[in-house]
Amino acid sequence: MSATPSAASPRIVIAGAGPAAQALVRRLTSRPGAAPVGGTITVLSNRDDNPEALLDLAALPQVSVRFGQPASFIDATARIVATSDGMEFAYDHLVIATGSAPALPPVQGAEGGLSYSTIDDAGPIGDAVRDITRVLGRRPLGILVGTGPAAGQAEAVLRARGVRPVRTTLRPAAVVPSPAGRSSAESVLPATGIVFEDGSSMNGDLVVLAEERTPRTDLAGSAGLRTAPDGGIAVDIDMATSVPGIWAIGDAPPARGSAWVWSCPPRPLPGAAPPGSWKTTVSWKTRVRRRNAARATAPPQRPLRDQRPLSPCPLNPGP
Length: 319
Description:
The chain has helices spanning 19-29, 52-58, 122-136, 148-160, 218-223, 255-263, 284-297; strands spanning 11-15, 40-44, 63-66, 71-75, 80-83, 88-90, 93-96, 100-102, 114-115, 141-145, 164-168, 174-177, 191-195, 201-203, 206-209, 213-215, 246-248. Helix content is 24%, strand content 21%. It contains 7 helices and 17 strands. The radius of gyration is 22 Å and the shape is globular. Strands 3-2-1-7-17 form a 5-stranded parallel sheet. The protein has a 4-stranded parallel sheet with strand order 9-15-10-11, with helices on one face. With 319 residues, the protein is of the alpha/beta class. It has 3 domains: 11-101 and 214-276, FAD/NAD(P)-binding domain (3-Layer(bba) Sandwich), CATH 3.50.50; 110-211, FAD/NAD(P)-binding domain (3-Layer(bba) Sandwich); 281-319, no CATH class.
């Protein structure tokens, strides 16, 4: 039996509970200059723990967070999503925000260091940096392993917390624990160095791994969603997938599409007032015109791949 969309109270299901999913829930329930989206919002989280950010969202009257209930199958015809425990949720709008997974097997001893994949990891890294700074009595030296956007973000996080990061793009063979000579009081973090295949090493006060990750597409396969050639769920400019009623945000779509979830507000849902402008009182159309005008008068630069004037955001046309 197919789900019948209700314009007045749409059923929104979000598969995933990471930063992108949380940002979307906050945007839908608290929109400056516009009424909150009506209906219900169900968040299917694969986490058994209860982080404070999710508990805050679960306290909202129209939001239901299902902890430890990751989505495992989508019946796009009936508009039903099932969890790994067999629970079924009917939806009018489904948003896939399942994030990404490591592209390579873990490095030996990686559990002894710190890991960065999303901004969610900034908190634990900050706590660890504070502890080791207190023990050392000086600014710590951090060994950062990784390439791509995640490594760049991790470097910014470390610098903001007073760490001197030394970054390497060469993948180590192992992460090594702290020297045996250190006392237990000094061993705030067990991993303080890395060793490469040729026997060379790098040593510091902490190790952060921010390696390449790939979008999770298993859930998309069950719904027959089209995937992008470079990985991830194929989406158009407003994050809609190839199947009506299903969107993908965050790390689920390719990197080029992911940027749109942060630069545009969500698509207005049936029965909801059009959202206000994003972050400022200046409309998206106005910002696009200003940016394109600035580009037109700027000195010539080496063209980037896929560089072209921005189009007005279809999700928030503005005045």
